[in-house]
Design brief:
This is Glycosyl transferase family 1 domain-containing protein. With about 375 residues, the protein is of the alpha/beta class. It contains 15 helices and 13 strands. The relative contact order is 0.11.
Amino acid sequence: MKPKICLVTNLALNDEPTVENRLLPYIDCLGDKKADVTLFSADSVLKQDIGKKVKHASIFSERERPKSFIKRAIFEWRESRRILKKASIEGFDLYIVTIPSMFLLFNLYLLKGKKVCLDVRDLTWEYLDDGSLVQRLSKFLFRILADVNVKYSSYQIVTNDTEYEYMSKRRGEVLKYSNGVTEKQFKELNNLSAPSSDSVFTITYCGKVGVAQNLSIFIEAASLLPDFNFKIVGYGPQTEEMEALAKEKKLSNVEFTGHVSWSEVLEHYNASHVLYAQLGPLFSGAMPSKLFQYLATGRYVIYGGEGQAAETLRQFKMSRVIPSNDVTELVEAIKLAKSQQLLHSESEFNKSLIAERYVREKNVNRVLETIL
């Protein structure tokens, strides 16, 4: 008899590429094992290629997520309870509940008595700002809720060493499924050509445009390097603010693409000399999956930040870690990359390391061998 597996997220794969990237390898690898897979997600309709592989239980809600911290927390608490209650009555053999929505974890007791794997894609409650009284008190409460509810999972699946250490102090067996690239993405990224030698030197950021990334630093660097092109590929809550900043500075060397398809992302990678990312100090425990995409392209990578991502990048060549939110360091790193022609000198080393350790399907199969 086919094992009945339930994948649970409270987000929409169509809107969140990081969620899609995380769950697709589960879907594909479980399909290879002839499992009967049902996906609970906030998509009204799945993309056709994904919809062919799984049964879909839509938990789509027309209500918009509130912007204020407290109202959003209440909204996500209610939505998470609704989703888990709906999933619990179906009687699956195994539940894989993927977060970064902490509220799915905080309501995990609703799956008491069932076989549950908690897929920890981010410790989001640990990123709350201690400088805010409301967020500091919330972090204290959320830590208690996390500790109480994690015991309802038999396994915790984590993405990096920071999460592994955190979860190892709790109940259950901890397994690692590192973020990375899918097999299909790796082939496409690995086959990119080098940018034209006579093209304008281009630095590209690709991903969410949000508070954690603070791309005002990127725009400040563009104002100091008028002969370089700067691209912001993606969209997020701070897009309009960043566009306004570039307009205020009258910068003609900054391009905003907005939301783009994967094929367009590849085109932007192909035209780039340097790829850039940043996370502020509050997010030091995170490892942005886009860094693995960057490294698989063979381009030179500049990362502003510390903690988990900085530690991971030490394995690779053709990358430089600088302090976050430091315009001077960013400008100097870009100049150095160009002047010393570091752009492709060790690209094959990085690509081979990605292939060995950070292809998602390989890591998912290792996890599934244990939990099934």
